[in-house]
Amino acid sequence: MAAAPPARIHLLPAKESPYVVIIRRKPSKTYHIIRWNVEHDEFEHGSWFTGHIYTHRSDVSFDGNWMVYMARGASGALWNGVCLLPYLKTYLEADAPDTWGGGGLWRDSQTLLTYSWTNTKGAAPFRIEEGQGGNRMRRDGWIHNEKKKSWHWQFHPRGATLEASYHKYFFDFEFRLQEFPELLDKEVECATFAANGDLVFSRLGCVYRYSRNDLRKGKPGFTADLNELTREMTGAGK
């Protein structure tokens, strides 16, 4: 019998707080939201969702408390939402006309830019502005190299440099750590820096955290296998 495919994991780091949002997908149309405190390596398990979450249209607030996302439900309905982590219950929501727009990006700690929202309902504790052209990677600190079609980010002036090169599709990357080229192989799905400068990445359904000292030692400060999670293990969520 063939082995079950690993969970797919996308990571969204908060810019000014020690939280990383884990968007876990397994099986293909089931998502689970986890808020990871990287200072204490604690998980807050939240919603389970059947449908599709557009991770490249999603973002987390600077304080790590809120998430904006675009989703398609099991019935086919498409919408935008702003939720209080780690749950997907919307405090602010809007229609999404198609998948070309939608979602949002925090421009700063007090301002959420939304893209092509219509029939907006609800409220949230920050300014809401319609905007286009924002880029989450550039906002966080990544620098784009158009000639090489890649991005790079050196969080600490004397720290390692993370590279992201376009793979097959837009928002599909291969990652490499310049000073430690053997660490991130082609199985790494997502890699980024948390607000405290720790490297965090996902690989084959597991998450890893390396501080600068961990990188020198060659061992992760924390790792967790999220492949076998079930609703019963974590709670059904909301």
Give the secondary structure arrangement, pairings included:
Blueprint: E1 8-13, E2 19-25, E3 30-37, E4 42-53, E5 59-60, E6 66-73, E7 78-84, E8 90-95, E9 104-108, E10 111-114, E11 118-122, E12 127-130, H1 136-140, E13 143-145, E14 150-154, E15 161-166, E16 173-177, E17 188-193, E18 199-203, E19 206-210, H2 212-217, E20 222-225, H3 231-234
Parallel strand pairs: 10-12
Antiparallel strand pairs: 1-2, 2-3, 3-4, 4-6, 5-6, 6-7, 7-8, 8-11, 9-10, 13-14, 14-15, 15-16, 17-18, 18-19, 19-20
Structure description:
The protein is mostly beta strands and 238 residues long. It has one domain (8-228). The protein contains three helices and 20 strands. It has helices at 136-140, 212-217, 231-234, and strands at 8-13, 19-25, 30-37, 42-53, 59-60, 66-73, 78-84, 90-95, 104-108, 111-114, 118-122, 127-130, 143-145, 150-154, 161-166, 173-177, 188-193, 199-203, 206-210, 222-225. The strands form four sheets. Strands 1, 2, 3, 4, 5, 6, 7, 8 and 11 form a nine-stranded antiparallel β-sheet that branches. Strands 13-14-15-16 form a four-stranded antiparallel β-sheet, with no helix packed on it. Strand 5 (59-60) and strand 6 (66-73) form a beta hairpin. The longest helix has 6 residues, at 212-217. It is globular, with a radius of gyration of 17 Å. The model has no long low-confidence stretch (mean pLDDT 94).
